[in-house]
């Protein structure tokens, strides 16, 4: 099993939710988060400075002291190993604009899962249709 964690733009949440459900992944979590990527400043500022480099000496010192956190959504779902590629591709298809700030996807191993209600374990605990191995 793997956990797929995606950090996406706030305005892409509804479309991402619909795409995941349509692809057969109705169970996931989403929370509001704020963070920063690698870029030291906003893309609009970089574009403006590229057009008017003579302003850089005035603008850059002001921006260095204002690290702004950008509101995003964190989407998390646990899936069997063989479904990771489909989940990742679904998220990329919806969220890729090819602009800075599109987000990141992390895939991390999950050692086990246990459904509290039934004590089902492993893939059975994450599969809504599953029934099987139980935790003693």
UniProtKB/TrEMBL annotation:
<dbReference type="InterPro" id="IPR011322">
    <property type="entry name" value="N-reg_PII-like_a/b"/>
</dbReference>
<dbReference type="InterPro" id="IPR017918">
    <property type="entry name" value="N-reg_PII_CS"/>
</dbReference>
<dbReference type="GO" id="GO:0005524">
    <property type="term" value="F:ATP binding"/>
</dbReference>
<dbReference type="Pfam" id="PF00543">
    <property type="entry name" value="P-II"/>
</dbReference>
<protein>
    <submittedName>
        <fullName>P-II family nitrogen regulator</fullName>
    </submittedName>
</protein>
<dbReference type="GO" id="GO:0030234">
    <property type="term" value="F:enzyme regulator activity"/>
</dbReference>
<dbReference type="InterPro" id="IPR015867">
    <property type="entry name" value="N-reg_PII/ATP_PRibTrfase_C"/>
</dbReference>
<dbReference type="GO" id="GO:0006808">
    <property type="term" value="P:regulation of nitrogen utilization"/>
</dbReference>
<dbReference type="InterPro" id="IPR002187">
    <property type="entry name" value="N-reg_PII"/>
</dbReference>
<dbReference type="GO" id="GO:0005829">
    <property type="term" value="C:cytosol"/>
</dbReference>
<comment type="similarity">
    <text>Belongs to the P(II) protein family.</text>
</comment>
